[in-house]
Amino acid sequence: MTALAALLARITPPDGEAAARAQRHLDALTKPPGSLGRLEELAVRLAALRGGPPRVDHPVIFTLAADHGVAAEGVSAYPQAVTAQMVENFARGGAAINVLARQAGARVVVADFGVATPVALAGVASRRIGPGTASILRGPAMSVPDAVRAIEAGARLAEEAIAGGADLLATGEMGIGNTTAASAITACITGAAPEAVTGRGTGVDDPTWRRKVEVVRRALAVNRPDAGDGVGVLARLGGFEIAGLAGVILAGAAHRVPVALDGFVSGAAALAAAVLAPAARGAMFASHRSVEPGHELALAHLRLAPYLDLAMRLGEGTGAALFVHLARAACLVHAEMATFKAAGVSGPTGA
Amino acid sequence: MTALAALLARITPPDGEAAARAQRHLDALTKPPGSLGRLEELAVRLAALRGGPPRVDHPVIFTLAADHGVAAEGVSAYPQAVTAQMVENFARGGAAINVLARQAGARVVVADFGVATPVALAGVASRRIGPGTASILRGPAMSVPDAVRAIEAGARLAEEAIAGGADLLATGEMGIGNTTAASAITACITGAAPEAVTGRGTGVDDPTWRRKVEVVRRALAVNRPDAGDGVGVLARLGGFEIAGLAGVILAGAAHRVPVALDGFVSGAAALAAAVLAPAARGAMFASHRSVEPGHELALAHLRLAPYLDLAMRLGEGTGAALFVHLARAACLVHAEMATFKAAGVSGPTGA
User: Fold this and answer.
1) What is the pTM of this model?
2) Mean pLDDT along residues A30-50
3) Residue B224, min C-alpha distance to chain A (Å)
4) Contact flag B342-A88 (C-beta cutoff 8 Å)
5) Residues in chain B within 8 Å Cβ distance of A333
6) Is residue A298 within 8 Å of A191, Cβ to Cβ?
7) Which residues contact B80 (CB under 8 A, 6 or more apart)?
8) Residue A349 pLDDT level (bands cut at 50, 70, 90)
9) Minimal CA–CA distance to A16: which of A54, A56, A47?
10) Nearest-CB residue to B338 (from A76, A94, A348)
11) SS3 B206
12) Most-buried pick from A47, B29, B126, B171 (CB within 10 A)?
């Protein structure tokens, strides 16, 4: 059995009994039943995954970076060099994800999965599959063995973090051109039209948006991906960091550690992971709803409801970092609130 | 000039130049312009209020408690005794607001504004206006002088906190029956129908909900409040804690300290505060959208968009406590992110 096959074999659905226990406990706490809304649902889902009381003490955010051959087709507002420059910014702690992760008490794992020019800096793990993908307008982004290598490299990064105590994984990415790849993956797996899934990315103008839609349409026509083949979709449509994030998600699911999905690009990785192992959905938490139109379609396909809706579209893991506060809040409510009985508070009249 | 009149005279609109400076700074940071969505809007609004870089280092949550004569009309799922019992729970640190405030690094000020049986416990400030309001089904909740006393008591609590360094105020409340008072206030000020603003509160069944709607309708008919008279609306429809929260909000606005509004009952206080001083809206931040249907109407009337939407309906200040994390995130992004120039990151192609 390959490493990937072994990982997939470990993924099982959440624990219904642990969920019911958590709900009963929440109902005994000094508040009207259900009055903390989605915070309670979140605590129950975390308990179901963990098989016991929810806890989030050591969150780790995986910000994986890679370049995309499709960037040469003029689909982004920024030059390809920005991928490497932003990885350096991550390493120096100056990017939004650094700021928001510090606030959330989360560690950021930055990894180079294939930036055009290698970034050799302390604090950047080198997991390079190649110097960027090939343009999906001309053929597959990468070979199938490379897609498997990228998934397994992401999974290993996640497993190292879990071995070190990580109890929440979060996804994030950087890669000029990667919303084009994510659009193609989302169109393929959800069946939605290219113009419905393709958004403005970093903020492209109308002509560039129309070109981007056409690139997505042609990439699907040229590559003819099979929506039922998760590895194949990643190989044909890319990118290295998206495949790596699929690995992070699958490792979380295999080890029953929750995975906070960031925005649109992470959603594309989650779609591919759910094709490979439908039960992995039990480990996925949609941190926020991005303004990218394809993100909503991806979340609907995964039957996940986002917790935050702040009109964000930055990526890097920023939405997932904000979600860490909500996940912690859900755990703390479960762990620390007094019960009606202990606090001597009366229950409902006539109950 | 009375203390209330002096407070109202101090309230002026936010600082447009500080807002523009904050937006320019955000646009120079290493992210596509606007890509942090509402986090950026939040940073800009905080800067506009403060007249300088946004900061939230010392949040204080005001959880004001009082009883309501209208509770005798059978409008709640819980007995009136729960108000005092929950205040004791707050004092011992076992309630949801204690847990979420600890997580957010916020201090909770618990004050008895008129619980039926006084709560004399360390950690509970006594600001009693009376032993609960009169039933709004029979006449005014309180006299006009008592409404002024309650507003001024809330404002003084807030001013003490501001003098101690508070840089974010948050509203919260406890009072069996207070969603009925809030429904009446919201119907009066927004002009919406009683059945449109009245919700399930702590979770009442259908017959109780119909009775609650009828109580709101009759309270408006009996008291004939004038929607243009903020103090009069609070005096006629109650309650002591709602008037106190209006005072907290007005003090925040007068001292240009942001006020995070919690849910439906806080929204009713905000509506009354905005009648007294329309410019106070500049200090109001809608932390979340409650499931109470009247809350959405109140926020629309105030032209405030909530930041969180987690199907919560607990009150106490719980939504506002979660919002503290977002407010801090907005400030940290503004303060700590690297600029394109400093990080050596390229700007948009052709820009």
Assistant:
1) 0.98
2) 98
3) 31
4) no
5) 96, 99-100
6) no
7) B67, B71, B72, B116, B132, B176, B177
8) confident
9) A47
10) A94
11) helix
12) B171
Cβ-defined contact of B78 to A344 (cutoff 8 Å): no
DSSP secondary structure, A309-344, as one string: -------TTHHHHHHHHHHHHHHHHHHHPPBHHHHT
**Which two structure tokens, joined as six digits, stand for A323?**
């979600």
Name the packing angle between helices B318-336 and B37-50 (round to 10°). Answer: 90
Tokens describing residue A303: 């039957």
**Taking phi first (over 0 means left), then psi (-120 to 50 degrees means alpha), and beta for anything else, what does residue B247 get?**
alpha
Nearest to B230 by CA among B219, B218, B222, B242: B242
Q: What are the chain A neighbours of B37 within 8 Å (beta carbons)?
A: 291, 310-313
For the record, the structure tokens of B11 come out as 């309230």
The answer to whether B326 contacts A328, with C-beta atoms less than 8 Å apart, is no
ipTM over 0.90: yes
Interface test mutation site (partner A, options B25, B27, B36, B316, max chain A beta carbons within 10 A) = B36
pLDDT for residue B189:
98
* DSSP secondary structure string for all residues of B289-324: EESSHHHHHHHHHHT---SEEEEE---TTHHHHHHH
Predicted pLDDT of residue B205: 93
- Is residue A180 within 8 A of residue A200, CB to CB? The reply is no
CA A160 – CA A163 distance, rounded (Å): 5
Residue A113 main-chain phi, psi, to 5 deg: -95, 0
CA distance to partner chain B, nearest, from residue A207 (Å): 14
Q: Do B345 and A92 touch (CB under 8 A)?
A: no
Catalytic residues of B: 316
Residue A105 token pair: 């008490």
Q: Do B32 and A337 touch (CB under 8 A)?
A: no
Centroid of chain to Cα B113: 16
Spell out which residues of chain B touch residue A76, defining contact as CB-CB under 8 Å: 349
Residues of chain A found within 8 Å of residue B342, distances taken between Cβ atoms? 94
Residue A160 identity (one-letter amino acid): E
pLDDT tens, position by position, A230-260: 999 999 999 999 999 999 999 999 999 999 9
CA B267 to each of CA A318, B274, B287, B317: distance values in angstroms, whole numbers, following the listed order:
30, 10, 10, 12
Long-range contacts at A20-29 (CB < 8 A, ≥ 24 apart): A21/A47, A22/A46, A22/A47, A22/A48, A22/A53, A22/A54, A22/A334, A25/A334, A26/A333, A26/A334, A28/A339, A28/A340, A28/A341, A29/A333, A29/A337, A29/A338, A29/A339, A29/A340, A29/B96
Give residue A350's pLDDT. 59
Q: Is B191 helix (H, G, I), strand (E, B) or coil?
A: coil
Q: What is the pLDDT of residue A351?
A: 46
Question: Which residues of chain B make contact with A86, given a CB cutoff of 8 A?
Answer: 30, 345
Residues 6+ apart with CB under 8 A from A306: A286, A287, A288, A289, A299
- Token pair for B330: 């907005």
If residue B47 lies in a helix (H) or strand (E), which one and from where to where? helix B37-50
Write out chain B's pLDDT in tens, 351 residues: 689 999 999 999 999 999 999 999 999 999 999 999 999 999 999 999 999 999 999 999 999 999 999 999 999 999 999 999 999 999 999 999 999 999 999 999 999 999 999 998 999 999 999 999 999 999 999 999 999 999 999 999 999 999 999 999 999 999 999 999 999 999 999 999 999 999 998 889 999 999 999 999 999 999 999 999 999 999 999 999 999 999 999 999 999 999 999 999 999 999 999 999 999 999 999 999 999 999 999 999 999 999 999 999 999 999 999 999 999 999 999 999 999 999 999 998 854
Of the residues A195, A241, A316, A336, only one is catalytic, namely A316
User: Cβ neighbours of residue B111 under 8 Å, at least 6 residues apart?
Assistant: B62, B63, B64, B65, B124, B125, B126, B127, B153, B157, B244
**A195 catalytically annotated:** no
